[in-house]
Amino acid sequence: MSLxxxxxxxxxxxxxxxxRASAAQPSSWRLQQRQSPPSTEASNLPNQxxxxxxxxxxxxxxxxxxxxxxxxxxxxxxxxxxxxxxxIAHEALVISGAIVGHVTAWEHSVMVNEAGSVSPxxxxxxxxxxxxxxxxxxxxxxxxxxxxxxxxxxxxxxxLKCESGAWLQSSVK
Length: 173
Prior knowledge:
24% of the residues lie in helices and 42% in strands. The chain is built from 3 helices and 9 strands.
């Protein structure tokens, strides 16, 4: 009987530690984890490229984008959603679906996840791309191109960060 009680105490402690760690993560990260299929513990490490919102870049990770999302709440365009038309956001935006039209979020960040695609234009303070963008990227602060990204068109940004493995066919200003 005492062995069973000990096992329950250990499992409860692990559950509490996991809940505390989850509460410390940005809300956009938790949202993304709920939407992704269950994985092994090794794939939940922040440096793994399977989930671009958690990838750390050598000099400055794209956590600026995810922190901006958690601070203002942000909006999510889900993977089953396709929008034919312009999107104007007054908060941070995460795109997992497809947008055929202009995306504008001048004072906020836009994240295009691996499953996401946008054409022909994104205008935002910070743009982080892990999916597909055809057309123009206009970032007033910085553009981050992750290793899973496919960008074709032009990039106009004060700062550009590009991971090894990203596919670019772009002019850069």
